[in-house]
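step: validate -> pass
step: tokenize input -> pass
step: predict -> running
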Amino acid sequence: MGYELKFLRYNAYSILIEWPAEMDENILKNILGFKKSIQNSNIELVVEVINTYNSLLIIYSSTIDNFNDEISRLKSLKIKADTIEDASSRLWRIPVCYHDDFGIDLEAFSKEKQLSKNKVIELHSSAIYTIFFIGFLPGFLYLGGLEEKLHLDRKSTPKLDIKKGSVGIGGNQTGIYPENSPGGWHIIGRTPVVFFNAKSSPPCVFNAGDRLQFFAISKTEFSDLEQDIKNNQFQLTPELYA
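step: predict -> pass
step: emit ->
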């Protein structure tokens, strides 16, 4: 599918490419296909390519001498990228404890949505989400695909002490806080899984375009799994998602 793209000079060292401002899986596939083509190309001066849900930021190691020539080269590369078939992605299954001790907003959230807590958990854990991009905090996954019945605007007053691993809902998205952080999302559970470790290579194993599904665990299972992770006795392994 063809999209009308905007090629913008972001600064002397980078170019920003924008797609339509929609959170759409087809747009994401188009962005990631182009991103991969750039990374696999022979543009030696490109040092990093960063995507959001509707843009790519291409960062160069030195100033761009001729902006128009570089745009033309990128447009030619985009035409080639559009002919490449989509590759299979990975599916990560993430354990979440939805107990009230962890899902500190679950009761209020369920009342606001006029759903039972069990129904909220069922809807949240049955969907397969798409990772659109990683940002806000290192390892914070922005997930698309939240059931419409669970959509709820972010809190008007954020909390200052959201715990690491907290699973929240904000607007039409769900996500996981990889570190202790302020935040305005409605917290409905927590996972013991580590989403970012600066000492690991790579620090974050998740990529934009990957799929993710939650499954419910008990408090006892949470504690056991948390201990296994601390003792390096647990390894998160993805499945192939066609």
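step: describe -> The longest strand covers residues 89-97.
step: cleanup -> pass
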